[in-house]
Amino acid sequence: MRASQDELIRFxxxxxxxxxxxxxxxxxxxxxxxxxxxxxxxxxxxxNWQSPSESPPKATATITEPKAxxxxxxxxxAISFTxxxxxxxxxxxxxxxxxxxxxxxxxxxxxxxxAGALDYGQTYTATVTAxxxxxxxxxxxxxxxxxxxxxxxxxxxxxLGDNQVVGVGMPLIVRFGRAIPEDRRADLQRRMTVTAKxxxxxxxxxxxxxxxxxxxxxxxxxxxxxxxxxxxxxxxLGGGWYGGPDLTVDIKIGPSLVMTVENSSKRMTVTxxxxxxxxxxxxxxxxxxxxxxxxxxxxxxxxxTVFDTFDELGPxxxxxxxxxxxxxxxxxxxxxxxxxxxEGVQGRQNVSHGCVNVxxxxxxxxxxxxRIGDPITVKGTETKLKNGNGWTDWNMSWDEYVKGSALxxxxxxxxxxxxxxDPDTTDEPSTEPTN
Length: 435
Description:
By secondary structure, the chain is an alpha+beta fold. About 15% of the residues lie in helices and about 35% in strands. It is built from 5 helices and 28 strands. It has a 6-stranded mixed β-sheet, with no helix packed on it. It is elongated. It starts with a helix and ends with a strand. Mean pLDDT is about 85; it is low at about 1-50 and about 415-435.
């Protein structure tokens, strides 16, 4: 009997379904064989699997320090890394509990410094993510353990305290309880940051192995705020010594009060914020004990004191005198002070032992208006101020001053921005464009 047309259609469709089932089974068998060859589990893709349409990220990242699984890492460690083809780099550091550590990328984009010393004897994980112009991230990680707390710690102190108001010439002065070897100073200086608002160009200058100063290129701008930080906690400082706790100080700059003394006229001119507010007759050092020419700063102020020079000058030339309104300028004993005994010659003749003599009334006025760090420049005397005899930071040219830095001087490229931003940022990963 001849099959109907409908039956033929159904039969043809059934044969095609049969062929499809056979083909699907063959494909499945091939896939299972391929999975067995790649060693995957349960059909998962291997970690380096990519579809033909995907390409690896253009950027790469490598953490150079601390190495993965490193132990006894200094608590002041930075996260150092290299990247290639990166347009953006982020760094994240977490403790063993998964809590993010605050910090900031260095200006060169090659390292990241935590906002404070890490805890001793703890485990941390650093992650560096580099993203190229293709938008694809590449990551590198390093898990490391910090050293136990060392027994030998170097004390770090500041001459200034929080909220102190100082003059426009005031250097930032940091002292160390032990001499810092020359080969350790650059690493330490990298961890010494200054943030001024408004921003002002400046640099650190090593006065001695135990003392370092910071001054701006020009006098501080009046009424600025300045914050400086020494992040040396746990930093190796040579001979088995490590930096003590981090130090942070916030100060304020007062009005710009500047004193200038001309020996030729024997007058002091006082300016405040650029305007002359007073002219004062003075008597400087006599020829046998001349005043120093140079730029000095008010180091300390004493409403009443006694000058006793017998130990220094001996019984023949020494003297003992009560002094009012004394303002120290040098370690060698030069002061601005009231001298009622020389008021008759002030403005006409030099009779002092090297000090800047003024009248009682002018001494009281100056004492009431000056601050520690206010500058005074004396001109035209017989001797030059020796650097180191007081805070002589401004007695050097800028080119001379930068030679005292342990790091090469690099002029700022964006003077409108903070020159040494506070590394204490948020808990979010730090981000910085890199080249």
